[in-house]
Design goal:
Helix content is 8%, strand content 37%. The protein is mostly beta strands. The strands form four sheets. The chain has a six-stranded mixed beta sheet with strand order 3-4-13-12-8-9, with no helix packed on it. A three-stranded antiparallel beta sheet has the order 7-10-11, with no helix packed on it. The protein has a two-stranded antiparallel ribbon with strand order 1-6. The longest helix is centred in the first third of the chain and has 9 residues. It starts with a strand and ends with a strand.
Length: 190
């Protein structure tokens, strides 16, 4: 069975990976850039700019950021077009990599995650709140991989891309910086 996912980063819940993602994307031109996009382009010149909208039922549903599909689309393993990638649910293809990625969150739509002292974990995705804290040469790496569970293709693990929405935030826009792209994601509640 094939399942179509957005090619660009999207928010999801690891436990319901194969639910439909209500998501649209488009490449935008310079006259549509906001102030933060312009600031990011100063630090990351020649990056492609994608504007996306994701509709979710409630803020409680967002638990993870998926960036696997962007990197899988670069490998030409799965069929993909400008905005989507078709994943074969019974695929046995395995992908492991350390990828450069962070979230720029100037509107404070995400909660800061605490360092897990008990399990000595700090591999959660990096969220930067102020543009003055962004240094291109220090973009952190995030470990991602794919695997199969009982013959079903999965993006994993879920704990190293954990994000939690701040329910009190008045804004709904964030910026995902990956290899050669900046994705502006606007979250809309249905």
């Amino acid at each position: 069975m094939e399942f179509s996912f957005p090619k660009y980063p999207f928010f999801w819940n690891y436990d319901d990976m194969y639910n439909i993602i209500n998501y649209t994307s488009k490449e935008i031109n310079p006259n549509e850039y906001d102030e933060y996009t312009k600031l990011l382009l100063e630090k990351f010149p020649n990056y492609k700019i994608i504007k996306s909208n994701q509709i979710i039922k409630s803020k409680e549903e967002i638990k993870n950021l998926n960036i696997h599909t962007w990197y899988l689309s670069q490998l030409n393993i799965f069929e993909n077009d400008e905005f989507n990638i078709k994943i074969l649910t019974n695929s046995k293809f395995k992908y492991k990599n350390n990828v450069k990625c962070f979230i720029f969150d100037p509107y404070n739509i995400f909660k800061n995650l605490d360092y897990d002292k008990k399990n000595k974990k700090e591999e959660n995705i990096v969220i930067i709140k102020k543009h003055t804290s962004i240094f291109p040469e220090l973009i952190p790496s995030l470990y991602i991989h794919t695997h199969n569970i009982k013959g079903i293709f999965r993006f994993s693990p879920n704990n190293n891309s954990k994000v939690i929405l701040n329910k009190d935030s008045l804004e709904n826009i964030c910026y995902i910086i990956l290899d050669k792209i900046i994705v502006i994601i606007e979250i809309t509640n249905s």
